[in-house]
């Protein structure tokens, strides 16, 4: 399974309410028609606070939303954006988006999210590796060592790692450079509420985890989001 995230910046002059209304009511149903689509979610940014994070925030990013589309594989993803069904969605983007960058990811469910009837908050975070850390080193530190730290965190409802394996900007089929889309991973993190999260981030195990992050991460850029299921 391949997860494709769109990193979205709303068109200048649009309010957050106008952006979200167009994305949900107009653009969402168009993208939902993509062939081979296995799932589609819209994550609307509600807060850009650097909550609980000791790292610097990335200066490359000021996002208003994340789209999340699932496909069986890379070929299915490319095919979905190569046909006639995709063309109207590309035209529609100019109505509400200033910029869109795309990443194709492997999803790793470190702590699988199990939805219940209780409330929860979701945070999505962009990670950029340190200069001098190779993609292979990043993969090992994040998917192995860092994930082992997070498995020890108390009261975590869910924690998914999305490892970037390809990037796109402009073209939807030709890969972009790292400089054009400087992100190595996207974290999905669910917790019950902000008070629970604040207690968690004050704990020793999270302090240890953030110390380890200094070994391989340059910037950490979190966003609180509200999620809408489209497909």
* Structural Rg: 17 Å
Mean of pLDDT: 96
Quickly give the CATH architecture: 2-Layer Sandwich
List the domain count as a whole number: 1
Give an overview in words.
The chain is of the alpha+beta class and 231 residues long. The chain has one domain (2-229): 2-Layer Sandwich (Alpha-Beta Plaits). Helix content is 29%, strand content 35%. The protein has an 8-stranded antiparallel beta barrel with strand order 1-3-2-8-5-7-6-4, surrounded by 5 helices.
In short:
With 231 residues, the chain is an alpha+beta fold. The chain is built from 6 helices and 8 strands. Helices cover 29% and strands 35% of the residues.
List keywords for this structure.
231 residues, 6 helices, 8 strands, 29% helix, globular
What is the strand and helix layout of this fold?
Layout: E1 2-10, H1 16-31, E2 39-47, E3 65-71, H2 74-80, H3 87-96, E4 97-111, E5 121-129, H4 135-150, E6 158-169, E7 185-191, H5 194-201, H6 204-213, E8 217-229
Antiparallel strand pairs: 1-3, 1-4, 2-3, 2-8, 4-6, 5-7, 5-8, 6-7
Helix pairs in contact: 1-3, 4-6
